[in-house]
Specification:
Blueprint (H helix, E strand, L loop, with lengths): L11 H7 L13 H13 L3 H14 L4 H14 L2 H14 L4 H30 L7
Helix pairs in contact: 2-3, 3-4, 4-5, 4-6, 5-6
Amino acid sequence: MSHDRISPFARKSDQAFFAPAPVCQNASMNDVDTLLASARLMRARGHDDAAAASYALTLQNGPTLAEAHAFLAAHALRRGAFAASVAHGEQALKADPDDVQVHAMLGDALRRLITLEHAERALRDILDEQPQAYTS
């Protein structure tokens, strides 16, 4: 059974297991351990968006948690949000400077961000030089 799609014929217990659960519905939003457990559970089930939401709530209460920043950096990188990936990657490295995976991810995010900025700058230069060629 796919975790992303739930068959309309699946039992309700299966739907409840595979569907993303509300983030910590019975927990205090200030309980970092419960928020972290929810994030890990959603991550293990493959629900990255729900895990990202739980990690973001966790950071509101424990802003130096390397695990949360590392996950959010990877999540942002997969989504193409390179600046956010760099910001979370830098925070993760402040908390755990020896994390090789975060170093590699940060390097990738920076490379993509710089490439994107160079491409944007080149396009703006072309538009400034020949605006009539690109207007309808």
